[in-house]
Structures are given as C-alpha cells and as structure tokens.
Amino acid sequence: MSALIHQFVVHRLNLADDGKLHFIPRSSCFEANKEIETLAQQLHATFNSKPGKGVGGFAEESDNSFPNDLSQVLQSEMEFHEFSVKSGQFLLQTLAKEEMVETGFLIFSQYEYLATQYLLIALIDTKQHVAVNQQMDLDYSDHLDFSKMQLAVRIDITQWQVTPEQFRYISFLKGRMGRKVSDFFMQYIACEEKVDVKQQNKQLMQNVDDYLSQEQCDAYEKNQHRGSVASYFKEKVEEGEDVSVEEIAQFLPKDEDSGQSFSAFNDQQEAPLEQSFQPDRSVIKSLAKFSGSGGGVTINFDRPLLGERILYDPHTDTLTIRGIPPNLKDQLLRATKG
C-alpha cells in the first residue's frame, strides 16, 4: 500500500562557521512524483518501526501558533510551504532558547495512507557513502540516514478533526537521546503527552498473562494464544495502527460458563487499559520469549521451553537447563577443563 502525497518539502538546519545554527529553507515544495512517494513511504515505515513512542494532543493553553497555523493550512488559508518555513524558523528559536544544537534536514510530509490524513515532521541527519565509479575513482555522497531517526512527530489529521477529545492524535519518538530532547520537540509543536504508551503495553502483557492464568488452558494452548496476539501486534506495528483491547480479545479464549472475555476482564481491573493505544514492538518479543539480564548474566529463551527443557524453582531461585546449546557447552567444557 503506497502513500498519497499532498505536500512534501525539505529544509535544513546547519551549523555555520560562526558557530551559530542557521535555518536554510527550500524555495518551494517538491512536485509529487514516484521518487518523492517512495521517500515519504520510507519515512512512514521508519516512523512506524521505531519503538518507544509517546502519544498526546495539542496543549489547550499555549502561546505556540503551530496548531492554529496547521488549521489554516487545512482550510487553505495558508500555503503549506509558508507554514513549513514559519514552523522551521520557530524550531530554530526553540533550539536557541533551550541552548541545544541539532542539525540535519527538516522534512515536512503531508500525505494520506489507508484513508487517513497525516502530517509527519522529522529531523534527519546524513551519513556519507563511498562508491567506485567507472574510472575506478572514489565518489563520495551524503544520504539521508533514516535508520538514525531520533526526532520525529506525526499528527493524525483525520483523528484530530473527527475525535479531538480523545487527545491521542499526535505520536512522537521518545528515542534514546534523553528526555530533554523529546521534551523540546514536543514544545516545538505544542504537544502535551496524555497516554504513557510504554506503560500501557507493559500492563497489557501483564493482563494477558493474568487472564490466561485463570483460564483452563494447558501450556501449549497458552503459548498458541500468545503467538496469535504477537502476530496481531506485528501487523499493527507494520501498518502504524493502534492495537485494540476488543480485537485482542478475539485471540484469547472466552469463558463458556460465565461468558467473560478478555475485554470484560480488562474493564474489571483497578486501572483498566485504554481501549486502544499504539503498540510497542518490544511486546512481540516478550510474548514469544522470556528474557532478562543483571549481575553479569543475560538469559533469553522461547516460552514453550519453560517446564520442558528449562525448569524454574522459585524456592531456590534457580534455573535448570536440560540440553545446553552446543556452542555454549563447548565453551564451558574448555573453561572447566583440568
């Protein structure tokens, strides 16, 4: 499924020889073509694949003109290019105010994907590539480094216009660069976080385990249900869509006597989950594996192995592994020889 591009423009934040950060705008938006469509599609997919996103909406009390400017763009009262330049200049001011230096290409992409309108804003740096030409000389070129995307925000325009009261139409990368960085990018577009997505995903996994524990399922059946939920999560991550408690309930058993489903079980919790929220890619792994590290020890193994090849004794806090992996066994034998 490809994205339908409405507007696409790239500006630049550059650190000049004078040591000051400068905003260098492009003179106009790009004409939508196959190359731009591919680039926008890659941006969309990269954003979807990034873990640890936050969710929120525009702050109700803010002097930031970003929400109002975007409304004017959608009502054809402001040109998209003018909006992007004004927004880029405000980002420069925000960086200066926070005494931060971030460089790269500032991309504004307004597009439609699966009948949903989006605005994606990302600051992407470059990395140098080396190629050998026909004269056997080295050619150097700079490429956008999507894999290192750290600063990006996506606004679900459709949800903002239809159900703004849900306050979950903005998603942004929290990244690994520190809270201050994501905070300044939220401030840049006047975003306020309302839903702790990581906590919601963590609580969901706990609720799934608790629900399966009370159902009369054997270990094999439980792992089958977890695998179905993991496949559902993977699909939603790739599509960039929210997971739904109601949809997850379809992959879990239903009590035939009481008629209770997972969604009803969730509603009975002291702090029920949001009915829908963004999926965290790390959940897929936790549904399939047990993993942990600490004190110089790192262990991970497939869930079906618990009770089979791997036994846990909570009284002695020990794991017994039957059938050591050959490469590990070889290392252990050599280390203990003599």
Provide tags for this entry:
alpha+beta; eight-stranded antiparallel sheet; two-stranded antiparallel sheet
Short description:
The chain has 338 residues and is of the alpha+beta class.
Description:
The protein is of the alpha+beta class and 338 residues long. It is 38% helix and 28% strand. It is built from 11 helices and 16 strands. It has helices at 34-49, 66-74, 80-97, 157-162, 179-188, 197-214, 219-239, 245-249, 262-267, 282-288, 326-336; strands at residues 4-15, 21-24, 53-58, 104-113, 116-124, 126-132, 138-144, 151-156, 170-173, 191-195, 243-244, 276-277, 289-294, 297-302, 310-313, 318-321. Strands 2-1-4-5-8-9-3-10 form an 8-stranded antiparallel sheet, with helices on both faces. Strands 6-7 form a two-stranded antiparallel sheet. A hairpin with a 2-residue loop joins strand 4 and strand 5. The longest helix is centred in the last third of the chain and has 21 residues, at 219-239.
Q: Segments where pLDDT lies below 50 for 5+ residues? A: none
Spatial separation of the terminal alpha carbons: 61 Å
Percentage of helical residues?
A: 25-40%
Strand elements, count? 16
Structural class, from helix and strand content? alpha+beta
Radius of gyration: 24 Å
Order of strands, main sheet, comes to: 2-1-4-5-8-9-3-10
Q: Major β-sheet, in short?
A: 8 strands, antiparallel
Apparent shape? globular
Number of helical segments?
A: 11
Instruction: List the helices and strands in order.
Output: EEHEHHEEEEEHEHEHHEHHEHEEEEH
Mean pLDDT: 86
- Into which percentage range does the β-strand content fall? 25-35%
